[in-house]
Amino acid sequence: GAEAVYNFCSGPAMLPAPVLAQAQRELTDYQGHGVSVMELSHRSEEFLAILHSAEHGLRSLMHIPDHYHVLFTSGGASPQFSAVPLNLLSSGGAAGFINTGYWSQKAMAEAARFGRVVEVASSADSAFKSLPVWLSGFQTNELDYLHYTPNETIGGVELFEVPELPTDTPLVADMSSCILSRPFDVEQFGLIYAGAQKNIGPAGLGVVIVREDLLGSAQAQCPRLLNYQTLVEARSMANTPPTFAIYLADLVFQWCSAQGGVPTLAKHNLAKSDMLYDVIDRSSILFNDIEPKARSRMNVPFFFHDKNLESSFLAGAQRRGLLNLAGHRSAGGCRASIYNAMPLAGVQALTDYMIEFENTHV
Ligand code: PMP
Questions:
Q1: 310 and 184 in one domain?
Q2: Binding of L-glutamate: at which residues (predicted)?
C-alpha cells in the first residue's frame, strides 16, 4: 500500500482519517436513504437531525451554555470580519482591536469600514513576535467590544491568556485556527467565530457562538444574511446552508469526543508542539524567533539561517510524504500546521526528517 502521507497545510487542513472514511462509505447512500447527504433537502428530517447533532456536538465539546446561540454560516471566517462590527458596533461607539499581526489586522481593516476602530494593544514593536502590550489613549467605556485573534495562523503566535478589560466590554475572538485545540471558557466571551477548515471541517463553513444579549442591535444597513438575529431566528437556515460541510463538521465533532474531548486533544497538541519546537531549538540550521510563551501550538513557523537550504528541505519533505510545509506567501520560510487531526506520528516523521536533513547539511 501507499506510504503514510502527512499534510501540514494551514487550511484547508488534514481531516481525521476515520471521518473521511465514513463520509466515503456514506457518500452515495446516506444511512439507507438511497441518496447522498449532498442531495438531501436542508428542510428534510434527515438533514435537520445532522444539524441538530452538529450543534449539540459543538455545545458539548466546548460546554457552551444555553444563553449562547450556535450558528453555522457560509463563507468561512472572513464574513465575520464584517458581520461583527455590523452587529455590535454602534454609531457613537468604537471597536477595540488587539493587533497581533496578519489576521487581526484583516479584521480591524474591515471593521473600520463600518465605524470607529481603536487599536488598544499591539505587538508591532516586536514585529509581532511577542505578546502584545496595552497602548494608552483609549477609554475602555467607549468600546462596544474588544476583538482579538488568540492564534495568529501565519505568524505562529498564540495568546494563552484571555485579555481582560476593567469593564464588562464583550470580548470577541477569531478562533479560526485554535477552536477545539484547547479548553476555552465560553463565558469569558461575548462572541466566538471560526472558519471550519482547520479544526472543524471543509473550507467555506463558519461557526459563530454568540451570547443572547448581543443580538438585536445590528446597524440598519446590515445585510440580512450577516444579521445574527436573523440567523438565530432561522436556525442557521436563512438561506440554504452548506449542508455537506455541516455533515462533515458533525463527524469531526464526534471524532473529537471519541478522542476524549478537548482536554485530551489539548494534551496531544502540547506534546506535538513541544516535540517540534524542541528539535527546532536544538538545531544549528533552523530557528523560530517567537517569544517562547507566545509560541503557537497549532502553527509552527521555522526558518533556515541559510535560506539556500529551504528549497531542498521542502523538496525532500515532499518526497517523503511530508506535504505543504512552505510558509505563507507573506512570511516565507517553512510552517508546519499541526491541528487536532495531525497525529503524533506525523510530527515524529517531520522531526526525524529535520534531524536527518541537518546531519547531511552541516
Ligand atoms: N482568521 C484566521 C485566524 C485565519 O487563520 C483565517 C484563514 N487562514 C481566516 C481568519 C480567514 O478564513 P476564511 O478564509 O475562511 O475566510
A1: no
A2: 10, 43
